[in-house]
């Protein structure tokens, strides 16, 4: 790769929302060279008209119902309501329709058994089916929770890798201010562009996992507006926002009625139907990050081989996160398992009134409803957390994770790379509290080492009772 790499400055969000994006001059890593890397015209995102919306059709969260039922819970919000009384995040709303059906069914069976003909089945069936149902629900729930935890681990890895890569870029990539002010400023702006690409990777990954494949969402457009991507080129055809979800679809999502819910992959299918190539936006962002790392190695601003290897390892870790999260979202529980578990569960619930009536009589109705709530509720929880990257209340708060990455990158870049003399030889450096650096600097090396030896204390890992200690001594003898 050439030692000269051109990275474009990120456009501001206000400019993107009101005016068409203008061509921004490139930030050249090598100020002595006037050439810039050629930009592909086939993948360049078209400039929208001034009155054109930036966001493609996506599910918005502006209505009251959406605000209440279609966002992951805020994990940092303190709630005083007891868990027993909480509705937000509960599976209870999704159980309303199934429980109404079960209540009607158990009422019919109870009335027939009470007034006409006793519909009674041996309780042995309850025992056999109960074991099978418990086994199936346990398998479904454990598999879903494993996927949930795995998704959280990948996002934790993304946060850690983003911190490491941002720190390595900011600290170890040199700024050539000693060469010329323009060269130092170009290096600084290039580093800021690379930090912005780290944030762009996280946001684009979030959008991809939610099947929102375009590049001009409100939180993503300012980060990738300077990049030539397939998603950017395909976004123009869908630049007008769809209307909010209808009341019927919002209620259907709240009650868990699958036939009323929107297809989350509809944008991808529509793009395929229109012949649009969406590409893989996080992978393309990673491609630009790799180009930046290659450029700073080539132009000598990252001379240390250890730091070069660490940055390449960080890029590999980001690619691992991308592949792992895609595996989680694209590999659900096999359909055969889901169908069999659902059929077995409903067979058990439907058979409950026949087995309970002989012992409970009219209490069969509430008993069946309670049993159905327990069994169907646990199964519904497994279905909800099976895909941990969506908009359900119990899904992972991906927006908060992306905001955390952005905030931490801002913290890293808020100060110049520190120099050891700025924080070591200072009066605020309390070595072996409470003496300052100056006080210890006035002492001899022998005095310092003697103090360190005096601070060292060791304790036995375990203490044995006297009887056991004496017995151990006898065994040794």
By secondary-structure content and strand pairing, the structural class works out as mainly alpha
**Main beta sheet: strand number and arrangement?**
2 strands, antiparallel
Quaternary structure type: single chain
Helicity range of the residues? 55-70%
Q: Average the pLDDT over all residues and give the rounded result.
A: 77
Number of domain modules: 2
What is the N-to-C succession of helices and strands?
A: EHEHHHHHHHHHHHHHHHHH
Across the major sheet, the strand order is: 1-2
Query: What distance separates the N and C termini?
Result: 73 Å
Shape: elongated
Rg value: 31 Å
Strand percent estimate: under 5%
User: Regions with pLDDT < 50 over 5+ consecutive residues?
Assistant: 1-69, 237-243
Number of strands: 2
Helices, by number, come to 18
